[in-house]
Amino acid sequence: MSNAILRKTRELVDARNSMAFIAVHDGLTGLHNRTFLTDHFDTLIKSAHRRRERLAVVQLDLDRFKQINDTLGHAAGDYVLVITAQRMRDSCRASDLCVRLGGDEFVMILNGAGGSEDINMLARRILAHINEPIVFQGTTILPGASGGIAVYPIDADNAQDLLVHADLALYSAKKMGGGNFSFFSEELRRELDYRKQLEHDIKVAISQQAFQVYFQPQVSLSDGTISGIEALVRWNHAERGMISPGEFIPVAEKCGFMPDIGRIVISKAINEAAVWNRDGIAFGRLAVNVSGTELREHDFDAFLFETLEKAGLPPQKLSLEIVESVILDDEKTGIAAKLRHIRAAGVHLELDDFGTGYASLSHVNPNEIDRLKIDRRFVQNIHENGDNSKIVRAITELARGLGISIVAEGAETEAELDSLMAIGCDQVQGYSIAFPMPQDKARDWLSARMPKKARLTVLQEAWRRQPSPALDNSSPKWRPVTIANG
C-alpha cells in the first residue's frame, strides 16, 4: 500500500510538473512562450535596474517563412522553427531568455548586455548562426532571419514599450532587405509617434466613413470596349491632404482596421456601380480587393450579399480580387468554403498579382477562378525585357488553355501596350488607359465612351412637299429627299 501511494504521488507530481511546463513553454520548439514573457519581463527589468545594467530586447522573425510553408509544406516550416529555436539557445547564455511569441516570431532578452558595440557584436553572431543553411529532406533552406533591437533603459523603461520599439526596429531591418538587424533610434521614435497619430486618425476616418473610392477602368485593346473597373481606396486627410494607400494600409493592417476599411470601400463601390447599372452606363464588372483578414470575418459573405441586394446590383456585375496566399489558405479558416459560396451566387473571383506568389497550378482552374491579373512588375518595360515577355506569354497561354480570362495591370506606354497586344493579352489596366478617378469623373469617363445609338437626323429641307404627277397641284404628297444617320 505504501509503495502504491508513493507511486501515485510521483505520478501526480510528474503530471503537475508537466502541466506547469506546458503552460509556460511552446509546444513545438520548447522555448518559453508569450505567457511566461508577460509574467517575468518586469522582473528582469527590475533586476537590470538594481544592477544598473543594460538589457537588450532582440525581436526576430524569418523573412521567407511563408514561402517555405507554401513551397515545401508545413512539416518543413515546423522543422525550420525547431532548428531556429535550437540555434537561439546555442547562441546565448543561460541567464538570457528565449521566447517564441507565435508563428515565426521570436524574442531574446539579453541580460547584462553591455555597451552598444557589445550588443552589436552579439546580435551579429546570433543572426549569423540562425541564418546558416538548413537541410530538410535533401532540400537546402535559407531562413533569412531579421532582427530589431531595443535597449533598456535607453529606448524605454517598461516591457511594453521595449517590445514595441524592438518590433519597429525589426520592421526597419526588413525594409532594408532582410537578413540583418536594426537598432531602435530617434528617427524610429519619431516614426513611431507618427504611426500612433496615424492610427488614431484612421480610427476617426473609419467612424466618419471618410475613405473614398476611386475607379480605374480596364479595357480591351482589340476593340476598346470596357471589360471592368477596379475600386481603389483613397484617403483625403482633413489636414494633410491625400495620404498614399502605401502609407496608411500597412498601419491599418497591423492594427486590425482593414476589415472596417474594406467594408466601407465595398459598400461605396457597389452603391456607385448600382447607380451606373440602373442608368445604363456600361462598366463591365466592378472589381474590389478583398484580403484574407476580411474573408475570415464570419459574416463577410452575408454582408456582401446584403450590400448587393440593398444597392440593387446583380452579383454577376461584381468581381472579388484576391491574392494567391488567400486561395492557398488552410481549409480550417473557412475561406475556401466561403469563396465557393460567394462564387456560386454569381460573383466572379479574380487572382490578383498573379506570378508573384507561390500558388499551385492546381488552384488555377475555371472551377475556382474567373480571371488572372498579371502583376505590373512583369508588364513594365515588357518590350525591352525578354524574360518578362516570356512570363506574360506563358501566363496568357495557360489562361487561354484553361478558358480563364486575363488582364495585365500597370501598362503605361504605347510600347508596352503593343507588346501585350502582340502576345495576345487583350485586356489591360494602367495609366496609359486612365488614372484612378473619383466617382463623378469615372462616371463621365464611362459615359463618354459608351457606343452612340443610331439617331435619325433630318437635314434641312430633307422633307419637302412635292406635287404628284398623277394628281393636280391641289393634292400635295410628302416625299423623302435625304436622311442622315448620326
Q: What is the element layout, followed by pairings?
A:
Blueprint: H1 2-24, H2 34-51, E1 55-62, H3 65-72, H4 74-91, E2 97-102, E3 105-110, H5 116-130, E4 134-136, E5 139-141, E6 145-152, H6 159-175, E7 181-183, H7 186-207, E8 212-220, E9 226-237, E10 241-243, H8 245-255, H9 258-278, E11 285-289, H10 292-295, H11 300-311, E12 318-323, H12 324-327, H13 335-344, E13 348-354, E14 371-374, H14 376-379, H15 386-402, E15 405-409, H16 414-423, E16 427-429, E17 437-438, H17 439-448, E18 456-458, E19 463-467, E20 476-480, E21 483-485
Parallel strand pairs: 6-7, 9-11, 11-12, 12-13, 13-14, 14-15, 15-16
Antiparallel strand pairs: 1-3, 1-6, 2-3, 4-5, 8-9, 8-16, 8-17, 9-10, 18-21, 19-20
Helix pairs in contact: 3-4, 4-5, 7-8, 9-11
List the main descriptive attributes of the protein structure presented here.
alpha/beta; about 475 residues; disordered C terminus
Provide a descriptive summary of the structure in words.
The chain is α/β, with parallel strands linked by helices. The protein is 46% helix and 22% strand. It has 17 helices and 21 strands. An eight-stranded mixed β-barrel has the order 8-9-11-12-13-14-15-16, surrounded by four helices. A five-stranded mixed β-sheet has the order 2-3-1-6-7, with helices on both faces. A two-stranded antiparallel sheet has the order 4-5. Helix 3 packs antiparallel against helix 4 (74-91), helix 4 (74-91) runs antiparallel to helix 5 and helix 9 runs parallel beside helix 11.
